[in-house]
Write a structure and sequence with these properties.
EC number: 3.2.1.21
Number of strands: 18
Catalytic activity: Hydrolysis of terminal, non-reducing beta-D-glucosyl residues with release of beta-D-glucose
Structural class: alpha/beta
Number of domains: 1
InterPro entries: GH, GH_1_N_CS, Glyco_hydro_1, Glyco_hydro_1_beta-glucosidase
Keywords: Carbohydrate metabolism, Cellulose degradation, Glycosidase, Hydrolase, Polysaccharide degradation
Enzyme class: hydrolase
Strand order of the largest sheet: 4-3-2-15-14-11-9-6-5
Bound molecules: 6-O-phosphono-beta-D-glucopyranose
Largest sheet: 9 strands, parallel
Radius of gyration: 21 Å
Distance between the termini: 13 Å
């Protein structure tokens, strides 16, 4: 019976990874010479985090990283996406580096390599040094320059052991979520995050923040290639807004491509094309970002791979003869959702996301840098967590991803968000995204049933 099951296999050498970010798990917020980040400031401001919590201790990963790496190994992960906390390395954002900050990441990388897990660090997962925010943060054109300097320094220091770096995580989320406010709309649809520094800027200034952020990415790509050992590779980890054809026929697929390109205009589209779309500039009008042709060349500095965070389709579309060339179809009132309010179910995003990156921009290699879901995880009487909803979500997502790889879309790896429950930004510890349950009173880690599922998939390099 068992050998009659048709396993959907992934390409040889496919990376099966789990993901986290520094502020969400490290804790040790003021240890070993670390500077403050905008998330320290934001979480310490009353009223900003839903449950009043902070990331001061979080998962105490800074002190428990060995245990966490051992867990990853047990779960069958062969890659790990984590982020480096900029103010641990440069407490003031620029200037003299703090050697103890770098030491931590050296120890972590050593532990990972010894466990046979490949490190994939992200250089910016939203924890900007507060000292730079005090000078205007991403509104200031000096911030992208400082970011590239920090990125080049880390690449120089770590690239004898680390081959892949992600530059920025979700520019769309930190630019819009941090500078626009949660009750407004972004290019790709609704914004589910209100983020540090918690500003509400007018449209022109927001567009400038977005521009500085993509510029920071491009400058960092240049710096990493220049300062890293030969062969050091890098690319963005961006949340892609995905338009999915409601009906899969040629004309609707074409319409979905047009829509996807527009939805990502100030983010992935400009990064991968080196131009803002006409529609984006026209719509922005007098609020369009100020930029030079040199900026566009910098922003589109060639990357070695494209990382995309994929949780759901942003919109469904059908073809249309009238401008803009597609018709957006709203989600039905009874469309199934996962645990989070924003999380509409749509596993086909895992097919169409990478597929669109390939058809629109011909990326040399693609990583799914995040995919996963929150669930109402509870410990059962026997001490286990039976997260059947998460397993259903993951199985459906991976089945769709395998469809893409089987068609030759160059997806090289998948990073599940998240390795363990953690500080979920403005939701505090209320939303659990992990495949490992964390008791935040005792710091006990308990692998959920989904961790067994992940291990099974990774071991077979296939989803059944
Ligand atoms: C992504 C982020 O937006 O989604 C992660 O890169 C985050 O850091 C994850 O934790 C889950 O989203 P949220 O906003 O529901 O916590």
């Amino acid at each position: 019976m068992a050998d009659q099951i048709h396993r959907r296999e992934f390409p040889e050498g496919f990376k099966w990874g789990v993901a986290t970010s520094a502020y969400q798990i490290e804790g040790a917020w003021d240890e070993d010479g670390k500077g403050q980040s905008i998330w320290d400031t934001y979480a310490h401001t009353p009223g900003k985090i839903r449950d009043g919590s902070t990331g001061d201790i979080a998962n105490d990963h800074y002190h428990r990283y060995k245990e966490d790496v051992a867990l990853m190994k047990e779960m069958g992960a062969n890659a790990y996406r984590f982020s480096i906390c900029w103010p641990r390395i440069f407490p003031e954002g620029t200037g003299t580096p703090n050697p103890k900050g770098l030491d931590f990441y050296n120890r972590l990388v050593g532990e990972l390599l010894a466990a046979g897990i490949e490190p994939f660090p992200t250089l910016y997962h939203w924890d900007l040094p507060q000292a730079l925010q005090d000078k205007g943060g991403w509104q200031n054109r000096d911030t992208p320059v400082a970011f590239a300097h920090y990125a080049g320094y880390v690449a120089e220091q770590l690239s004898d052991q680390v081959r892949h770096f992600f530059t920025t995580n979700e520019i769309q989320s930190f630019a819009d979520g941090g500078h626009r406010g949660v009750d407004t709309h972004v290019a790709g649809g609704e914004l589910h995050l209100e983020a540090a520094p918690g500003l509400r800027l007018p449209p022109g200034e927001l567009n400038q923040v977005r521009h500085h952020a993509v510029l920071g990415h491009g400058l960092a790509v240049h710096a990493i290639h220049a300062m890293g050992k030969p062969g050091t590779q890098c690319g963005p980890a961006e949340v892609i807004s995905i338009a999915v054809p409601l009906i899969e026929s040629d004309e609707h697929i074409k319409a979905a491509e047009v829509a996807t390109r527009e939805l990502n205009a100030p983010f992935l589209t400009v990064i991968l094309e080196g131009r803002y779309t006409d529609a984006y500039l026209e719509k922005a009008g007098k609020d369009a970002p100020r930029f030079t042709p040199e900026d566009l060349a910098t922003i589109s500095e060639p990357v070695d791979f494209v990382g995309i965070n994929v949780y759901k389709p942003n919109i469904y579309v059908l073809a249309s003869d009238t401008t803009p060339g597609y018709r957006a179809i709203p989600y039905s009132a009874s469309h199934p959702k996962m645990f989070s309010d924003w999380h509409m179910l749509g596993p086909e995003a895992l097919y169409w996301g990478p597929k669109m990156v390939q058809s629109l921009w011909g990326a040399p290699a693609i990583y799914i840098t995040e995919n996963g879901c929150a669930a109402a995880d509870e410990l059962a009487a026997d001490g286990n967590v039976y997260d059947t909803d998460r397993i259903m979500f993951l199985r459906n997502s991976l089945t769709q991803l395998q469809r893409a790889t089987a068609e030759g879309v160059p997806v090289k790896g998948y990073f599940l968000w998240s390795m363990m429950d953690n500080f979920e930004w403005m939701n505090g510890y209320g939303d659990r995204f992990g495949i490992v349950y964390v008791d935040f009173d005792t710091q006990q880690r308990i692998p959920k049933m989904s961790a067994s599922f992940f291990r099974e998939v990774s071991m077979h390099n296939a989803v059944a």
